[in-house]
């Protein structure tokens, strides 16, 4: 290699990330899981090049968006909210997709974390501003990942989720291992230093609201930083109201890992 070429290579490698072109919007990505390539999506803000580090949101979809197309998980919940008003979400957002007939526990949860780690590396995510949220089955996954990887997240926001598995929603792995005591108090103790905002519809006919009420009460009992919002008269879809809330996004992006 000539001296001139070597000098050019050094200059290129020294460019700051903000000076390099990065594709933005909803991007197709894959992550390798034991030799299998799994699709997911990443949202990158249009003004990505203006910052050296970005907060990152990991979003877990509900049961209806399971599959392998790598796209359906962006059509309900956080994805539509971003498309409607992208300026309210100045963050990199990771959209993993759980396989059919699975839940956000065990291997699918590991895949979500792998997609998060890969995204953090590719898009220079801020380790102190990583947020976790999900709806319905993804709300359950939010509790699961928050309990088992407390050190990873600056704040968590389960929406119409559940901690113990209700009938018809039984996953392969419980949120809390059997030897850890009563489930909801164990989760509260584990998350006592993590900001949590819980959302649920009062009239939810799919996931009973009592589970979110019990979680909020247990977190309050250990003096955790917890907020609880119950939408009066609302059925299962409490995610549209949540992701449209200016108060929620302001709270979320104000949190940093302790």
What is this structure, in a nutshell?
The protein contains eight helices and eight strands, in the order αβββαβαβαβαβαβαα. It is α/β, with parallel strands linked by helices and 258 residues long.
Map the helices and strands.
Blueprint: H1 3-14, E1 25-33, E2 36-44, E3 54-60, H2 78-84, E4 92-96, H3 107-122, E5 125-135, H4 137-148, E6 155-159, H5 183-190, E7 196-201, H6 210-221, E8 226-231, H7 239-243, H8 246-254
Parallel strand pairs: 3-4, 3-5, 5-6, 6-7, 7-8
Antiparallel strand pairs: 1-2, 2-4
Helix pairs in contact: 5-6
DSSP, total strands: 8
In N-to-C order, the SSE pattern is: HEEEHEHEHEHEHEHH
Strand line-up in the sheet with most strands: 1-2-4-3-5-6-7-8
Query: What is the number of helices?
Result: 8
Distance between the termini: 48 Å
Structural class estimated from helices and strands = alpha/beta
Mean pLDDT: 92
Helical fraction equals 25-40%
The poorly predicted ranges are 4-19
What CATH first level would be assigned?
A: Alpha Beta
Please characterize this protein's 3D structure:
- Helix 5 crosses helix 6 (210-221).
- This protein has a single domain (33-164, 172-254), classed as Rossmann fold.
- By secondary structure, it is an alpha/beta fold.
- The protein is built from eight helices and eight strands, in the order αβββαβαβαβαβαβαα.
List keywords for this structure.
258 residues; alpha/beta; Rossmann fold; eight-stranded mixed β-sheet; 8 helices; 22% strand
């Amino acid at each position: 290699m000539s001296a001139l070429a070597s000098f050019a290579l050094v200059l290129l490698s020294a460019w700051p990330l903000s000076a390099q072109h990065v594709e933005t919007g909803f991007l197709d990505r894959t992550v390798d899981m034991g030799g299998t390539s799994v699709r997911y999506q990443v949202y990158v803000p249009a003004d990505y090049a203006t910052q050296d580090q970005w907060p990152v949101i990991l979003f877990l979809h509900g049961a209806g968006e399971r599959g392998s197309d790598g796209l359906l998980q962006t059509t309900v919940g956080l994805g539509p909210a971003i498309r409607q008003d992208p300026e309210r979400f100045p963050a990199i957002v990771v959209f993993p997709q759980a396989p059919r007939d699975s839940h956000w526990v065990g291997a699918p949860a590991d895949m979500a974390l792998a997609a998060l780690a890969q995204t953090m590396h590719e898009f220079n995510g801020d380790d102190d501003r990583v947020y976790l949220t999900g709806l319905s089955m993804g709300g359950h996954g939010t509790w699961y990942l928050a309990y088992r990887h407390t050190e990873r997240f600056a704040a968590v926001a389960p929406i119409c989720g559940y901690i113990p598995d209700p009938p018809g929603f039984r996953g392969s792995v419980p949120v809390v291992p059997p030897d850890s005591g009563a489930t909801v108090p164990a989760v509260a103790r584990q998350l006592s230093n993590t900001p949590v905002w819980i959302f649920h519809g009062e009239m939810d006919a799919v996931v009973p609201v009592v589970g979110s009420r019990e979680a909020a009460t247990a977190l309050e009992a250990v003096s955790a930083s917890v907020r609880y919002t119950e939408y009066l008269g609302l059925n299962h879809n409490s995610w549209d109201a949540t992701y449209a809330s200016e108060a929620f996004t302001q709270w979320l992006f104000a949190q940093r890992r302790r």
